[in-house]
Amino acid sequence: MNIIELEDVWKVYNIGEVEVQALRGLSLKVEQGEFLAIMGPSGSGKSTAMNMVGCLDIPTKGRVLLEGQDIANLNEMELSRIRGKRIGFVFQYHNLYPTLTALENVQLPMRIHEFEEEEIWDKSEELLQLVGLSARAHHYPSQLSGGQSQRVAIARALSTGPALLLADEPTGNLDTEAGKEVLDIFSNLNIQGVTIVMITHDEKIAARANRVMRMIDGRHAA
Fold first, then answer.
1. Is residue 185 part of a domain?
2. Beta strand 69-70 with 61-66: parallel, antiparallel or unpaired?
3. What is the pTM of this model?
4. Which of 14, 35, 49, 218 is deepest in the core (most CB within 10 A)?
5. Do 188 and 165 touch, CB atoms closer than 8 A?
C-alpha cells in the first residue's frame, strides 16, 4: 500500500514577474513501512517536495494522493486535520512550547484532537519511554539539551498515530552524538513499521534510510 504518492507533480511560483518552476513533473511513491531519504542541493526542489509529501501545499499540476485520497479535493479544514493526525512532522528546530513540560508537549496534539484523557496519559508516557526520556518528563525545554528536545519532538510527532513521519533535516542543529541518537530512534521506529520520509543534504544521514531519492532542478536526478 502506498502511503503517499506524487503523480507528475509540478509547482510554479510567481515571484513578481518571474515564474519559478520549483517542481517539474516529479513522481514518487512511498510504501507503507518504507524509510526514504530525499536528497538534493539547495534549490533542487526537495523542500517543495517535502511540502507536497506533508500536504502543506497543493500542486500547480499533477496529483498528490495520501492513502489514495487526492488532497486537491480537500478543503483547508480537512487538510489541517490530516496534517494534524495522519502526518507527524519533525523539523530541524524542535519547536517545542517553552511553557509546557516535555510530557505536556507530547500530550498537546492529542488534546487538540480530543483523544480520551486516559489514552493521552498512557500514550504520552509510553512515547517518552520510547525515546528514552521518561526521567525528563516534567522538565521544560530550557532544561533539556538540543538532542533531548528533538527526541521530545519525535515523541510529539508520533502521538496521534500518524501514517507517515516526515523529518526535515532532523539532525541539522545537533552535534554528532545527539544526531546519531536521533537517527537510531528513526531506525528503530522504522523497524517497528513506522513509515518515514527524511529530507537531508548529508550523504551519511541519507545512508540510514532504506532508499534514497536524489533531486536536481525540481525533478529526479539522472
1. yes
2. antiparallel
3. 0.89
4. 49
5. no
CATH number of the domain that residue 162 is part of: 3.40.50.300
* Residue 127 within any structural domain of the chain: yes
- Give strand ranges (E) for 68-179: 69-70, 87-90, 164-168
Q: How confident is the model at residue 222 (pLDDT cuts 50, 70, 90)?
A: low
Query: What is the C-alpha to C-alpha distance for residues 133 and 148, in angstroms, rounded to an integer?
Result: 7
- Asked if the structure places residue 6 within a domain, the reply is no
- Indicate the number of domains in the chain: 1
pLDDT at 43: 82
- Hey, what's the cell of 81? 486535520
Measured between alpha carbons, how far is 132 from 92 in angstroms, rounded to an integer? 20
Which domain does 44 fall in, by range? 34-58+74-220
Question: Above pLDDT 90, what percent of the chain?
Answer: 47
CB 101 within 8 A of CB 177: no
DSSP string over 131-160: TT-GGGTT--GGGS-HHHHHHHHHHHHHTT
